[in-house]
Amino acid sequence: MATTLDFRTHVDQSCRYSEEFVNIYYDCMDKKRRNLTRLYLDKATLVWNGNAVSGQDALAEFFESLPSSEFQVHTLDCQPVHEQATQGQTTLLVVTGGTVKFEGNKQRFFNQNFLLTAQLLIFFKWK
């Protein structure tokens, strides 16, 4: 029984974290693109319509090259990825779908997948 409860708690937390991430991600995409690369690891790779973009500098350049956008997320699903598949790294698979309108283009459907990994964050208080 405790294992089932622990798993349910893990799933509930995963869903909350995923929803928070998605809200932040698409807000950045639509309004604060210069901050978007902060959501990616240094060696991250983004695949957009079959084209791979790797590394912080390339990602920043790619995001800035896109026309302004309006994303609306209609569906969100998240699944914790078993730690055996990720060498013990806490990881979530997040799948989104909805509509997007890029400036100068008609509204289209989109879907996007993310693999989120837990990272150690250190915050410094500036005086």
Automatic annotation (TrEMBL):
Its main location: cytoplasm. GO terms for cellular component: cytoplasm; nucleus. The keyword Iron-sulfur does not apply. CDD domains: NTF2. Gene3D superfamilies: 3.10.450.50. Keywords: Cytoplasm, Nucleus, Protein transport, Transport. InterPro entries: NTF2, NTF2-like_dom_sf, NTF2_dom, Nuclear_transport_factor_2_euk. GO terms for biological process: mRNA transport; nucleocytoplasmic transport; protein transport. It is found in: Cytoplasm; Nucleus. The keyword Ribosomal protein does not apply. Residues 17-127 form the NTF2 domain. Has a role in nuclear-cytoplasmic transport of proteins and mRNAs. This is Nuclear transport factor 2. The gene is NXT2.
